[in-house]
Amino acid sequence: MATQMERGVPLSVLCPKFLHANSTSHTWPFSAIAELIDNAYDPDVSAKQFWIDKTVIKGQDCLTFVDNGNGLTYEAMLKMFSFGYSDKIAVNGLEPIGIYGNGFKSGSMRLGQDAIVFSKSEKASCVGMFSQSYLKEIGAEQIIVPIGVRDQHKASLKDILRYSPFKTQAELLTEIRAINSTCSTGTTGTRIIIWNLRKTSTGLTEFDFMKDCYDIQISSEVYEAINDKPQPERTTSSIPESEYSLRVRNNHTYYAMLTPCRGGTDQNTQLTVAQCTFQDA
Ligand SMILES: Nc1ncnc2c1ncn2[C@@H]1O[C@H](COP(=O)(O)OP(=O)(O)OP(=O)(O)O)[C@@H](O)[C@H]1O
Ligand SMILES: [Mg+2]
């Protein structure tokens, strides 16, 4: 490992394996999703709506999280992909939930190996990739995060096109445009796509997308594993829905209005499973 110095003193650096280690703080997959919802709700982003979908991109199951908040600039996305940089302040009496500068990293990497973030702020559109598979494939010794704005940052864009599911600039632009097609109001927002979703030891995704097409549920296999089976006194029907249903859980946790609705394109077979409309605080 090459030593980097600052003032002649060695810098601490992060090994890519830390991304997985850091994600293990979320034993329960819904707490990882909560990190992404909290970020959209926080006063710096101030989203009014938030959509959680399961979609298939190039044959891969993905989770998508879209908000119509303020979006991110290049600099803000770099902070989002870094650790410990949180400078949120209360706005109009709404106290921020996020304080540690870690939730996006731990939450997204708990849900899958890789994430790509498309964002539109008032100033610019940008795309960034936060990806364990990428770091592994290139043999990275430290965490590098390709971020690109339009035609600038050529090296980043090249790596995003090579290692993400999106292979052309036109495909990236389509995803950026999708932010506005999802959001009924506003022209800014952020779309996070997570792929290489975490799987159980039997090769199934830990979420059951088939049981209820308007919901994302924790599969019974994962539920039992997390709850340290066996629990003979607990039958499936006695488990509270909020423990395995994302739709019910969000309804309880965020006091949000959840409107299940279908949407999306033929190409990506998108299914909107939960739309949260945040109520004014
Ligand atoms: N959906 C989003 N839209 C715009 N900015 C976002 C979004 N999600 C995250 N960010 C930005 O990325 C930063 C990092 O998010 P992260 O969740 O890692 O940390 P945090 O929310 O500041 O603190 P905590 O670890 O307590 O959650 C946030 O401070 C916020 O500025
Ligand atoms: Mg956060």
UniProtKB/TrEMBL annotation:
One of its GO terms (cellular component) is PML body. Pfam families: HATPase_c_3. InterPro entries: HATPase_C_sf, MORC_ATPase. It comes from the Eukaryota. One of its GO terms (molecular function) is ATP hydrolysis activity. This is Morc S5 domain-containing protein. It comes from Myripristis murdjan (pinecone soldierfish). The lineage of its organism: Eukaryota, Metazoa, Chordata, Craniata, Vertebrata.
